Amino acid sequence: MLSLSSPNKQNRKNDCCLIVSSIIVLAIAALSYKVYSKLSFVPDLPQVDVEEWWGPNKTQHVNTAIRPYRIIFSEAMVADLQFRMEEYRRFVKPKTFKDAGWTYGVNSEAFASFFADWVFRYNFRERERFFNKFNHFKTNVQGLDIHFIHVKPQVEKNVKVLPLLLLHGWPGSVREFYGVIPLLTTVRPGFDFVFEVIVPSLPGFGFSDATTRQGLSPTKIAVIMRNLMQRLGHKQYFIQGGDFGHIVASSLATLFPKEVFGFHTNMAMVDTKKADLVWLLGGLWPTLVEKEFTDRIYPLKEKIAFFLEESGYYHMHATKPDTLGIALRESPAGLAAYILEKFVVATTPEGKYREDGGLDGVFSNEELLDNIMVYWATGTITTSMRLYKETSNNSELEGAINLIPTEVPTWALRLKYELFFFPEFMLKWKFPNLIGTATLDEGGHFAAFEKPVIFADDVFKGVKHILEFHKSR
């Protein structure tokens, strides 16, 4: 017997479905709004102590004079280094698998050749003279003796001199900028300005003091760099950074937007959950995120696999840097291998599949050894790696700074093999006054070191656009 529902019962059923559907839609909308609000939340600017003390016990009389400084590779240090080098020469090296390149880490054969240059061909006295080709200084800022290179150009009165703070990262050093300093301090056709260059060693890196207490994260270092520029008499200035140098510079621009006249970065990035989410969702339809440079962000599976494979060092630095530091400080071969392998990975992703690591024709062994010598001669590998742990331990402060947009006009140089790539619309979440970008089809993570001419050209170009931006306001 056929049974039919009455019209009233069917209507009631439809009404119930409509109500349930409406509730679901409203719930999804409310949840989406909540997620969007959380991801778009902008906290208040954190209050930082611009006089926070990072040195030993504070005394009433602190010498804040700017003192000339000279880099010295002492005979005792060189003798100790050469003694330790003998240990590696007696060490039975494991054979690298055929065609493995650097995929297992350091290629033993390639590294043996590199290390031999340090043992037999690195001229310590000549390299010491090279390091001192520019004027070096130290001054005490917040309890720490901060080292910096300071080069002032010689120009006619009609040429403007713009102060420029150059900030390095890890495992770099001030050595990265030796090729660009002469280019930035020389007047060039078509530009009515040139730069007065200040290149500090970050606290705990190279020739700058390390702190004696916990908490010196990138934002706190930004305060030290600001106070250094104030000490030098610069109330307004330009900043440039890559790697940790970018992070410190970004914090500096966020904290002191009236002092930073412009920001040039070669590692433009947005470190927020919103950016991460858009990147992950973009894997479903990559061209919606970035049409022109999709291959620098996707495919998602390959990018995630790369970061998982290459980020083990980051986790170690962010958790137990002092343990690793003992091993690296004891062995020049260990230190050289560890730093060299990071240059392989960050210069070109294909380098690890080649026996030479992709470094031949990019950096000379002498240049790479200079940078390693900065860490060995000063014994700062441990204190430099601590910056990762301080960043992690102070994630609330660093995360807040990342969420706050900075009005400082910004220019980004994006090289082909930079570790991170963000579309311009994402960059504008953090840098709403992103004046422009230069996206090149060459170069890697260590832009100033690898491509000094391209780097210097782009700094001039970016600063010219920033000055035009200020004029138009």
Automatic annotation (TrEMBL):
Subcellular location: Endoplasmic reticulum membrane; Microsome membrane
Transmembrane parts of this sequence: 16-36
Reactions listed under catalytic activity: 1-(4-methoxyphenyl)-N-methyl-N-[(3-methyloxetan-3-yl)methyl]methanamine + H2O = 2-{[(4-methoxybenzyl)(methyl)amino]methyl}-2-methylpropane-1,3-diol; cis-stilbene oxide + H2O = (1R,2R)-hydrobenzoin
Gene3D superfamilies: alpha/beta hydrolase
Residues of the Epoxide hydrolase N-terminal domain: 66-177
Topology relative to the membrane: Single-pass membrane protein
Enzyme Commission code(s) on record: 3.3.2.9
Broad class of where this protein is predominantly found: endoplasmic reticulum
Keywords tagged on the record: Aromatic hydrocarbons catabolism, Endoplasmic reticulum, Hydrolase, Membrane, Transmembrane, Transmembrane helix
SUPFAM superfamilies on file: alpha/beta-Hydrolases (SSF53474)
Alphabetized InterPro entries for the sequence: AB_hydrolase_fold, Epox_hydrolase-like, Epoxide_hydro_N, Epoxide_hydrolase
Role: Catalyzes juvenile hormone hydrolysis.
Similarity annotation: Belongs to the peptidase S33 family.
Protein name, as recorded: Epoxide hydrolase
